[in-house]
Amino acid sequence: MLSRIIKSNKILFTKNIRTMSSKPIDLYTLPFYNGGPNGIKASIALEELGLEYKTHSIDISKNEQFAPEFLKISPNNKIPAIVDHDGPGGKELPLFESGAILVYLAEKTGKLLSQDPVEKYQILQWVFWQVGGLGPMVGQANHFVVYAKEDVPYAKKRYTEEASRLFGVLDKQIGDKNFIVGNELTIADIASFGWAHMTFLNPKYQEYFKKADYPNVQRWLNTLNERPAFKKAQPNEYFKN
Ligand SMILES: N[C@@H](CCC(=O)N[C@@H](CS)C(=O)NCC(=O)O)C(=O)O
To answer: Atom 11 in ligand 1: which residue has the minimum CA distance?
Structure first.
């Protein structure tokens, strides 16, 4: 019995030493718009999980995403990316793609992803739905409505209609629940938050996406925005000026 206690204390002690000596996770993200709708996923997950992290600015308006040092971490030249100095086997792990980062952080800590196998895959399907559907479609709508130098009505219609359909799918999935899957916050909520939050906050989108058409999404956004970790991850409001 005593030897078991000594043994488990030793493990605990060794673990604490490692946690104390390990460097914070490096997060590479945008220096504006609270990391943007993709970068904010990593910041929120790190905040929710209480992991120590250090933020590094990658300003895509200055093409910093193409710097050779950053490309070693994120070969697709996009944020967010992280480097965990205490990755699997105690080795350094660089990671890009927000979905992979969310799954990794959830598995590293055993939080934000259900241990129940059915619920786990339901959560993952909504994470993949976000990175393969909601993100790219709202991203294209964003480009043609807000940024495109030429007016392209066909593209505006195509992407805003598809984005509206996807927000409708999300609204139906949330229903009268507080979260996308189950009764607790998961990486599925963190994945979709940024794009939804950005869209409904931006006056330029009001003509295309009416808040009243997505009441469950609005209630869900309000619930998430009340959480301290979400507040900490977005110190400024989008589109403040
Ligand atoms: N599928 C990627 C998308 C990331 C993404 O599009 N990031 C944008 C900022 S929101 C970026 O870094 N763009 C720089 C570029 O395309 O050169 C993810 O989910 O991480």
So the answer is: 78
